[in-house]
Inverse folding.
């Protein structure tokens, strides 16, 4: 998937609902339930009636997702993962492409709401049951007689971005950010003033927005050794822009980026990089 397409998805809103809000639609066949976890996570159980379509395939070759989307029609796509982070990204990607997609959080939320779990059919992760047809898996539990989970309102919280804001002037933040990045062993690869760059090309752009690219070579080596395709998401980019009288710093969560690739061996590194990005941004904002 092209990086710009992913960035577009990050700024696309997608609904976030509780499973209790979605169960009737799945039972009626008007919505399709999709597990976007990776195949290694499925043997522990999946939600009954769920299609098994990894996020890495959605952001990659779409060997499974393409035929699924072809037959989706006008039905809503309800996605879940382990915690709601990857399903949030999947919902945004699908919504940006014009599909009706909703993030329903993690598998645990479906289980707690009383939805049955099932054994996955790993040999045939898709197609699953169509409208009105039975499930292609062995039921492990039964539906609860009463559902007490409350709907979750669409949230303004971004589960893909790390965002910080400060009263410090943008110029002060822009000066401090590279210095603090280096202190945390993230070297500066490049810096971009988007307003200046666009205006130099004859494109008016009124917003003040700059981007700093930083990288820790040791962490990059670990990630690239797991999957060279991760190079499309490197280096880390921290945006600095103004929002009213505040200066905002924002970056894509490294753990969210890693979820686009089949590289479980780099998970610990992604968490370390994410923790470092948070420290860098927090220290920059403190002044």
């Amino acid at each position: 998937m092209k990086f710009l397409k992913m960035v577009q998805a990050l700024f696309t809103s997608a609904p976030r609902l509780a499973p209790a809000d979605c169960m009737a639609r799945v039972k009626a066949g008007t919505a399709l339930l999709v597990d976007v976890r990776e195949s290694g996570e499925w043997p522990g159980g999946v939600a009954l009636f769920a299609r098994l379509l990894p996020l890495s395939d959605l952001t990659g070759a779409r060997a499974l997702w393409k035929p699924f989307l072809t037959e989706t029609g006008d039905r809503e796509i309800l996605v879940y993962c382990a915690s709601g982070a990857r399903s949030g990204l999947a919902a945004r990607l699908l919504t940006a492409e014009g599909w009706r997609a909703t993030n329903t959080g993690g598998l645990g939320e479906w289980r707690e709401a009383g939805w049955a779990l099932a054994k996955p059919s790993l040999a045939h992760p898709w197609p699953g049951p169509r409208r009105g047809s039975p499930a292609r898996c062995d039921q492990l539990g039964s539906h609860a007689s009463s559902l007490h989970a409350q709907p979750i309102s669409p949230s303004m919280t971004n589960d893909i971005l790390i965002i910080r804001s400060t009263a410090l002037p943008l110029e002060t933040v822009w000066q401090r950010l590279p210095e603090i990045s280096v202190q945390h062993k993230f070297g500066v690869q490049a810096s971009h003033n988007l307003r200046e760059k666009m205006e130099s090309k004859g494109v008016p752009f009124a917003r003040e927005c700059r981007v700093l690219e930083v990288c820790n070579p040791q962490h990059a080596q670990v990630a690239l050794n797991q999957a060279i395709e991760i190079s499309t998401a490197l280096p880390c980019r921290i945006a600095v822009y103004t929002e009213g009288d505040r200066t905002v710093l924002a970056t894509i969560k490294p753990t969210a980026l890693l979820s686009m690739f089949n590289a479980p061996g780099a998970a610990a590194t992604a968490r370390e990089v994410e923790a470092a990005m948070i420290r860098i941004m927090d220290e920059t904002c403190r002044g």
